[in-house]
# Entry
Amino acid sequence: MSKPEIILAKSAGFCFGVERAVNKVYEEADGGGSIYTYGPIIHNREVVADLEARNVHVVESEEEVRALHDATVIIRSHGVSRDTDQLIRDSARKCIDATCPFVKRIHRTVETESAAGRKIVIIGNPVHPEVIGIMGWSSTPVTVIQTAEEARNFSVPEGKEVCVVAQTTFNANKFQDLVDILKEKSYNVICVNTICNATSAGKSVPTLISYKRGTTYILL
# Structure
């Protein structure tokens, strides 16, 4: 019986944001001291276990963070809300922000657009830590849309401008479908396609399109 052939995909391994965050944790662990990550740095039990052996522990709540006055706390690539970010900086001896730059860009967009009075819509999973973190950068209530039914049921007052962003790991084709549903409502929409290239590679994603009264796609 012949042995099965194993082919390693060209894109195998961590995405840019996760690799960057993991490297930051290992670099800090080499220096010693009490180190904590806010949530698991990666959804990989082997890596988390290896870091635990290097005295890198995981905290899951703001209550735990408040007790870490003499420790280093690392924000993982998913990012956190504005309030949690400030709490970590105020409570920990040292804060290392390993938020993925692509996620950080969404935070800035949401912060700016909500301050300008636009309704923020996030297309993604409402319980995903990245989405929860993004929500926390809006100065106004946020709507998260994950399904076509939710998109069809979404409504805002006449004349209200809407800013749509996406969870970086959301399916690109599904994102397009949901945006098309919102577009049919004839809202004044700014749509920022924030899906990461590692997720959308090989998929069809929107290009820069403008509508007189409809949707503007912006590729970051």
